[in-house]
Automatic annotation (TrEMBL):
Residues 1-11 have a biased composition (Polar residues). GO terms for molecular function: zinc ion binding. Keywords: Bromodomain, Metal-binding, Zinc, Zinc-finger. It comes from the Eukaryota. It comes from Schizaphis graminum (Green bug aphid). Residues 1-51 are annotated as: Disordered. The gene is trim33_2. This is E3 ubiquitin-protein ligase.
Length: 245
């Protein structure tokens, strides 16, 4: 993992003349309507119409005939949008909890206890953390939409041989994570996620809305890294040192 100072950015760097216009976005408001697992079955009742107007996926912000709802926060998701994917095992559960409602701060305290900090295979603490990081990025702000795919595919593709994989934005990272072959370590995941925003800084001018969004998301990534990864590791290292005497 790169040092904390490497994640912090100097927004005066990486200026280029390829500035593009973009609309400003406000922080996305989270739905709190108390509707149980939403399925549009064609019912034309007023209740169904009222529910359908609020039935949008929290990750992609698109309406669907079938969304699954967290019983704690009432957010709704497509099966494939939620991270991890909603499986057949929990589709029929009356009380399903989304990743954003998990107590990741408490969970992250166990990072490093198994002496395998970098492991993000399914079921590990590291995996829970990276899934939460992606969900935070996808769901918290509307202007993340631009970073779902590569801001400038040519810019990403010209680095394909150096970085071994084509950078197509957060969707690509999510898909690679689900395949369980590319991301064998926490470091690789964090580096790829950071690069999505760093590359945008290399393409847009400082005053461009996309530049500001990329800077904001890098700061948000840095906050999550400090809170759920570095904080847990420092405590783990301190405890090991005390035990070593």
């Amino acid at each position: 993992m790169e040092s904390e100072s490497n994640i912090q950015l100097n927004t005066k760097k990486n200026k280029r003349s390829h500035s593009k216009k973009a609309s400003k976005h406000k922080k996305r408001k989270i739905s709190t309507r108390n509707v149980k697992k939403y399925k549009n079955n064609g019912d034309s009742s007023s209740d169904t119409e009222s529910e359908s107007s609020n039935a949008v996926c929290e990750c992609c912000f698109e309406w669907s005939k079938e969304l699954y709802e967290c019983y704690l926060c009432n957010r709704k998701y497509h099966v494939n949008c939620h991270i991890p994917e909603i499986t057949h095992r929990n589709e029929n559960e009356t009380k399903w909890q989304c990743t954003l409602c998990e107590d990741i701060t408490t969970i992250s305290k166990d990072l490093g206890k198994d002496h395998d900090v970098d492991n993000i295979s399914i079921g590990t603490v590291g995996r829970k953390i990276v899934e939460r990081i992606l969900m935070e990025l996808f769901c918290r702000f509307a202007d993340i939409d631009y970073f779902r795919n590569s801001p400038n595919k040519y810019f990403f593709r010209q680095n394909i041989y150096e970085h071994k994989t084509e950078r197509d934005g957060l969707y690509n990272i999510r898909n690679l994570l689900s395949k369980n072959d590319r991301y064998t370590s926490l470091d690789i995941f964090l580096e790829d996620t950071k690069r999505v925003f760093v590359n945008a800084l290399s393409y847009y001018n400082v005053g461009d809305p996309y530049f500001r969004s990329a800077t904001k998301f890098l700061k948000h990534l840095h906050i999550m890294y400090n809170k759920w990864i570095m904080s847990a590791l420092k405590k783990s290292w301190k405890k090991r040192k005390q035990m070593a005497g």
